[in-house]
Amino acid sequence: MILLLTVIVISTFGVVMVYSSSYVWAEYKFNDPFKYVKHQLLFLIIGVFLMMFISKVHYQNYYNKANTILLVCLGLLVLVLIPGIGTLRNGSRSWFGIGSFGIQPSEFTKLGLIIFTAKYLHNNEKHLKNIKKGVLPILGITLLVFGLIMLQPDFGTGVIIVMAIIGMLFVGGVDFRFFFKIAIVGLVGVVSLIAVAPYRLSRILSFLNPWSDPLGTGFQIIQSLYAIGPGGLFGFGLGNSRQKHFYLPEPQTDFIFSIISEEFGFLGIVIISTLFLVIIVRGFKIARNCENLFGKYLAFGITFQLAFQTVMNLMVVVGLIPVTGVTLPFLSYGGSSLLITLVGMGILLNISRYQK
Amino acid sequence: MFLKGIHKRIRIILLIIVFLFATIVGKVFYIQVIQYDKLSSYALSLWSRNLPIAADRGKIYDRNGVVLADNITTTSLVLIPSQITNKEEVAEKISAILGITYEEMYAHVNKSTSINIVHPEGRRLDYETADAISALNLDGVYLVKESKRTYPFGSSLSHTLGFVGIDNQGLSGLELMYDSYLTGSSGAIKYFSDAKGNKLELSEIYVEPQDGINITLTINSEIQESLERELDNAIAKYNPDSALGIVMNPNTGEILAISSRPNFDPENYQDYTVEEINRNLPIWSTYEPGSTFKIVTLAASLEEKIVDLNNDTYYDSGSITVEGAKLRCWKQGGHGLQTYLQVVENSCNPGFVNLGLKLGKETLFEYIENFGFGSKTGIDLNGEGTGILFDIDDVGLLELATTSFGQGISVTPIQQITAVSAAINGGYLYQPYIVKSLNDPETNSVIKENTSTLVRKVISEDTSEKVRYALESVVANGTGRNAYIDGYRVGGKTGTAQKVEDGQYLVGNYIVSFIGFLPADDPQVVIYIAVDNAKGVTQYGGTIAAPIARNVLLDAIDILDIEKSEDALPKEYNYTDKKYVTVPSVTGMSLKDALKQLKEFKVEFSGTGNTVEYQSPAAMESLYEGSTIRLMLK
C-alpha cells in the first residue's frame, strides 16, 4: 500500500511539474501550453490502469514468456534503427513515431532484459560461480542490447541497462573479483582513450567547472545551477521558476529536477528524495521477502534499475557527473518511460502479494 | 545460506544508493544554501533587465546657498526591442513624432540589444513630444527621466564651474575635478525577462537613484556678478586681449569671486575654442607682475628693518645704474627727493631698486619664495600655473634690481593676491581655496568642510601694519588714487607690466593691474584686477585697473556690509605736509547744521538739546583735519 500510494503521489506530482516546467516552451513551440502535460496526463492514466492490471497478473507469467519478450524487444530495437520506421529526434533514432506520440523500444527493453536476466539467474544458480559458463552468456546478451541501443545512439539508456544487469549479477552471487576486473578493464579503456586524445579529459571534467565553457559543454549544467541555487531553502513557489522561461532548454525532460528545486527549494528536494527512497526501500524489501528466486531477482532488478536511473539523473542535474541524457523516473516528461516505470511498479506490487 | 548472500548484497546495494542520495541532497544543500548568494546574484543578472533612471547630478552652490549649477529634468525615449510586438507600427508612429525617417526608426526597434536609446533625437524630449509618445501606450516603448545640467548665471564663473557632456559627465573645471562626487549612481526599474527578452509578469524592483553630492563654494555670487559686470564693461570700453579678476578674503584664503575674459557659455561649450574654455586665466596665466610686486620688496624691507618709511629718504634722479645698465623710473626726470613712503606712493622704480640692493639677493628671494612665488598656491582648481623665478645662482645685481620692482620674473594672478593677502593680514600666507564644503544631496548637511589652511607666517604683525599703512597712502595720495572710496580705508598698489614675447618686450602692449583691499586697518576683502593690452588709452594700472577694482569694492562694501571708517585717510592728503583746516563758527547753530559744517572734524558733544551753545576750539583756529571739536548743547 505504501508503495502504491507513493507511486501515485510522485507520478501525479510529476504531471504537475511537467506542466509547470513545460508550458512556456509548449506555448512557444506549439502555441498550446498544455501540449506536453496532456500527453503526460494521458500516459499517467493509461499507466496507472496498466499498473493496477499488471499487479493482478502473476509474475510467473513473465518467467514463461521471458524469451519471447526479449526477442520482441530485440526485434523492435533493430526495427527502430531503420530509417522510415524509426524517427529521428534530437539526433537519435530511438522512437517509433505515431503522430506526435513516440514509443521508445529501448524503454521496453529495459524491462524485458531484466525479466530475461531474472529467469537466467534463476535457472543458472549453480553456474554463477563459473564466469565462463555462468556470466559470459548473459553478459553477451546484455552487450548485444547495449550495442543496438548505442546504434540509435542512446548512451544513457544503454548504461542503465548494463548497470542493471551487472547489479543483478552481483546480487546473484557472482564473484566480487569479476566486477573488479570489469572495473579495471573499463578504467584502462577510459585511461587509454584519454591518453590517445587528452581533450577528452577536459571534456569529461568540464562538469566540475562548467564555467570553463559556459556556452558549450557547461551550458546545461550552468542553467541547471541557476535554477537550483536561487531556489534556496523554500523555493519561489509552484509555477514561479524563472529558468523555465527559455533559459533552460526543454526543462520538462532531463532537467525537471532543477525546476523542482527552483520552485520548491531545498525542502522540496528533501521530500522528493524521500519519496524515491521510500519506493526503493520498499522495492528491495519486496525482493528480500520474495521466496521465489525469479521473483526476487525480478523485484531487485526493477528496483535497482529505477534507483540507478534516478541517482544518475540527479547527479547530472546537480553537477556531480557529466551530462549523459537520462530522464528522471516518474517526473520527467516521456510517455514510454512513465508507462514502463509504472508497469515495473505493477510487477513489484504483484510480487509483494506473494510474500511470506 | 545462498539467500543470505543475496540479501547481504541487496543491503550493500541499498547502502550505496542511500549514500548516493545523501551525496545528492548534500550537493543540493551546497548549491542552494552555501552558494545561494553567488548563484542568485548571477542568476538575477541573467534574468533582470534594467530600465535606467538617471540620478541627479550634485548641485553647486555659492557660499550663501545660491545655486550656480542646477539640473532640469527631461524625459528620454527608451526602447526594449524584444518587447515591441508590432515593429512596423512603432517605427511608423515614433518616427513621425520625433521627425526622423521610418527606416532609421525601424532599425532602432529591430536592434538586437536589450535596451536601445534613440540618440540623440529621442533624448531630452520636450513636454509635448514626451506626452505624444506616452499617449500611444506602446509595448516596449518607455520614457525615462533624464536630467540636464543648467547654469542659472550663464557664463558667470564658467572657467571655474566647467561644464558637462551629453551624458552629464564632467568635462572641465569643478565639474570635472569633482565628477566622482557630483555624479550620483543611477537607479533602475529592474524587471524580469525570459531568455528571449520578453518581460515576465513578475514584480518589478525599483532601485532608487542616488543623487550626486552637492558642492558649496566660497564664492559670493553677488560679488561674482559685480566682477563679471565690471569685466564686461572693461571689455566694452578697452577691447583688451584679456581681462581677469579675483576677489578673496585675505584672512582665510577663500575665493569670493574669480573670473576672466574671454569666458564661455557652459551650456553651449561647443561654440568655443579649446583655449577659451581651458584657460582659467586667474590661475593659469603667468606674466611679469610689474609694480604690484613691489609690495613684496616693501614687506621684506620693513621686516628686515632696513628702511624707515617716514624718516629715510631717497633721491630719484629718474634712473639708477646697476652693473652698467640704466634702469629708468617710469616718471621722466624722476621724483626728486622723497621719503620712502613717497617712493611707495609714487611707485618709484629706482627707490625700490635701492631697497632690493640693500636686502641682497638671498634675503629678497627668500621672502619671494616665502610669499609663495615660484610654486603653485595649491588652490583646488585644475590648471594652475607655477610662474618662473630667476635661479638664485644666476641672480646678479641687475636681476636683483629688476626683481625688486617686479620685472624679469613671471607669476600668476592667484600667487599675487595670495601673497598680498599675507602681506596685509598680519603676515599669514593661506592656501587659497574655492570649495567650501561637500553636502549631502538630501539634507544638504555638510559631509566634508574645507577650512583655511595656513601655509606659513611670512612677516610680523607689525610689518604687516606698516605695509597696510603704506598701501593705504598709495590710494590716498599716490598712483592708486582712482580706487579711492570716500569714507573707506582702501589700500592698494598699481602695476603696469610690459609683456614679453620671444624674449623681447613688446612695445605699447602692457598688462595693467591693480591690487586693492579694504578696510586698510582690518582688511576684509582683497581684489586683484588685470587687463591685458587695453586699446585706445594710456595703459596704466592706475587709470584702467584701479577704477574696475573700485567699482567691485563698492559693491563688496554693500554685499559684505563693511562699515565706514571714521579715520580714513583723505584723498590727495599729503602725509608729510599735514593739511590744516580752519574751524568754522557753529555757535548758535542747530546740531544738524553744525555737524554739516564740521564734516572734516570729529565731533564730540555734551549736554542735551539741539542748539550749540559753545564750541572748543573756537572759530577761526587752524586744526589738523580729523581733529576733535567739542560742542556743548542747550
- Please count the beta strands of chain A (DSSP E, at least 2 residues each): 3
The separation of the N and C termini of chain B measures 145 Å
Helix content of chain B: 25-40%
Instruction: Look at the structure and give the CATH class of the largest domain in chain B.
Output: Alpha Beta
Poorly predicted parts of chain B: 573-578
- Count of strand segments of chain B: 26
Number of helices of chain A: 12
SSE string of chain A: HHHEEEHHHHHHHHH
In CATH, what is the homologous superfamily of the largest domain in chain B? DD-peptidase/beta-lactamase superfamily
Please report the distance between the alpha carbons of the first and last residues of chain A.
Answer: 16 Å
Quickly count the domains of chain B.
4
Form type of chain B:
elongated
Brief account:
The complex is a heterodimer of chains A (356) and B (634). Chain A contains twelve helices and three strands, in the order αααβββααααααααα.
Question: Your description of this structure?
Answer:
The complex is a heterodimer of chains A (356) and B (634). Chain A is mostly helical and 356 residues long. Chain A has one domain (2-353). In chain A, 69% of the residues lie in helices and 4% in strands. Chain A is built from twelve helices and three strands. In chain A, strands 1-2-3 form a three-stranded antiparallel beta sheet. In chain A, helix 2 (35-54) packs parallel to helix 12 (335-353). The longest helix of chain A has 34 residues, at 256-289. The radius of gyration of chain A is 20 Å and the shape is globular. In chain A, 50% of the residues are buried. The mean pLDDT of chain A is 86. Chain B is an alpha+beta fold. Chain B has four domains: 2-34; 50-217, Penicillin-binding protein 2a (Domain 2) (Alpha-Beta Complex), CATH 3.90.1310; 221-559, 3-Layer(aba) Sandwich (Beta-lactamase), CATH 3.40.710.10; 580-633, Trypsin Inhibitor V, Chain A (2-Layer Sandwich). Chain B has 20 helices and 26 strands. In chain B, the strands form eight sheets. In chain B, strands 2, 3, 4, 5, 8, 16 and 17 form a seven-stranded mixed beta sheet that branches. Chain B has a five-stranded antiparallel beta sheet with strand order 10-9-21-20-19, with helices on both faces. Chain B starts with a helix and ends with a strand.
